[in-house]
Here is the input.
Amino acid sequence: MKEQLYSIPVNDAFDADCECPVCNMYQKLQNDAIDFVMGASYMEDDVRMETDKIGFCSAHLPLMYKNQNRLGLGLMMLTYMDKQMKTLEKLSKEKAKKPSLFGRGDNSDPVFAYTEEQQNSCYVCNRMAHHYERYLATIFYLYGSDSVFRDKFARAKGFCLKHYGELHKLAGSSLSSKYLDEFSNTLNRIMVENFKRVRDDLEWFTDKFDYRNADADWKNSKDALIRAIQKTNSLFVEDAANKKK
Here is the structure.
């Protein structure tokens, strides 16, 4: 079964001390995809044909720039811009279709339609998509077949809002009736408990800025803002203070 191939990275993510194991898996997938694109693959014709056609989203392009392979990124952007220039020159000569008498029908502008499509197109996202779906499927596969993983799942620190929603939605079609209620109850419990834990840590983080609490212990709140951002928005924020150490 395909899910068995992904059991190691899924188990590793749930073994990690993190606020969302799915974010952990997604981050690893993203890093691997960017390393692939910015490695020697950018010189391969089939990869370049795809990147010229699909391009990159606004989320992944800055990460590619941060990779430091400026020559590789420059070459990819050069051929991508050449492809876009030819396409836009052609589309700019086409006229938008007029709406029908009652304002219905296709009145799309070809230039707008194409540029809008490009804004939602990304080679890195596409490369990650298949593996990400298999990771989610593996969570349910392991929950229904491995008692050790069920215990591990129950001890997790919950999930971010986005991935909590995805797991909640997929549970009904991914688990047998034998485990569905147990999974849903556990998922809801660990989500609520840990969301409240981070929320309470964040409250103390803000209270520490009150001069009356200047000498009080930080408890578990020093990184509460970073954890709150991940819980609510699935974002990893680099701790500038720790980076300087």
Q: What stands out?
A: The mean pLDDT is 90.
